[in-house]
């Protein structure tokens, strides 16, 4: 059987690619576990980093189970990968809320409010006897008299 497998070019090339991929993943993980990398990250990047490592390690265990002939879909690693995916979705939602949050243009809001406020015309001033000029900047208005609208 071994001679058949070694003679199969497709099989041997896949095994070599798999071995190179495993070695490459090992190097990436070695770089990812450096202490100073994590300490330099802000809270948002730390969450992404933790989720990345959790998903990566669980996926590697998934692959290990596959190489051992086990069905990883029936193993507890499946629920762990789903849990990490759920947290990844939640982290993206939090990030989106922070970046897409609407901002208030204060100057535009002030113009909008100012233009929307009722301003009495000349005839209303005479009928109501309100001193609008004195009350504008102070916020004090004569609430006893109500101007009549025509």
From TrEMBL:
Could you tell me what this protein does? Plays a role in the recruitment of the exosome to pre-rRNA to mediate the 3'-5' end processing of the 5.8S rRNA.
Q: What is this protein called?
A: Nuclear nucleic acid-binding protein C1D
Pfam families associated with the record: Sas10_Utp3
Location in the cell reads: Cytoplasm; Nucleus, Nucleolus; Nucleus
- Please state which protein family the record places this protein in: Belongs to the C1D family.
Q: Which GO terms describe its cellular component?
A: cytoplasm; exosome (RNase complex); nucleolus
Q: Where is the composition biased (Acidic residues)?
A: 138-150
Primary localisation category: cytoplasm
Q: What UniProt keywords apply to this chain's record, in alphabetical order?
A: Cytoplasm, DNA-binding, Nucleus, RNA-binding, rRNA processing
Q: Would the keyword DNA-binding be found if you checked this record's keyword annotation?
A: yes
Annotated region Disordered: the residues are: 118-150
**Signal peptide residues on this chain, from the entry's feature table:** none
Bias (Polar residues): 118-129
What GO molecular function terms would the record report? DNA binding; RNA binding
Tell me if Membrane is a UniProt keyword of this record.
no
Which InterPro entries does the UniProt record give?
Exosome-assoc_fac/DNA_repair, Sas10/Utp3/C1D
Its GO biological process annotations read: maturation of 5.8S rRNA; regulation of gene expression
Question: What subunit structure does UniProt give?
Answer: Monomer and homodimer.
């Amino acid at each position: 059987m071994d001679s058949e497998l070694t003679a199969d070019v497709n099989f041997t090339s896949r095994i070599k690619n798999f071995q190179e991929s495993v070695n490459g993943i090992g190097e990436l993980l070695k770089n990812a576990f450096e202490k100073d990398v994590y300490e330099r990250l802000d809270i948002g990047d730390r969450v992404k980093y933790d989720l990345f490592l959790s998903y990566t390690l669980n996926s590697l265990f998934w692959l290990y189970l596959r190489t051992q002939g086990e069905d990883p879909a029936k193993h507890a690693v499946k629920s762990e990968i789903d849990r990490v995916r759920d947290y990844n979705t939640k982290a993206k939602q939090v990030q989106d809320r922070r970046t897409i949050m609407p901002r208030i243009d204060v100057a535009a809001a002030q113009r909008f409010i100012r233009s929307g406020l009722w301003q009495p015309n000349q005839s209303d001033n005479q009928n109501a006897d309100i001193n609008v000029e004195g009350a504008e900047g102070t916020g004090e208005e004569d609430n006893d008299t109500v101007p009549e609208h025509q």
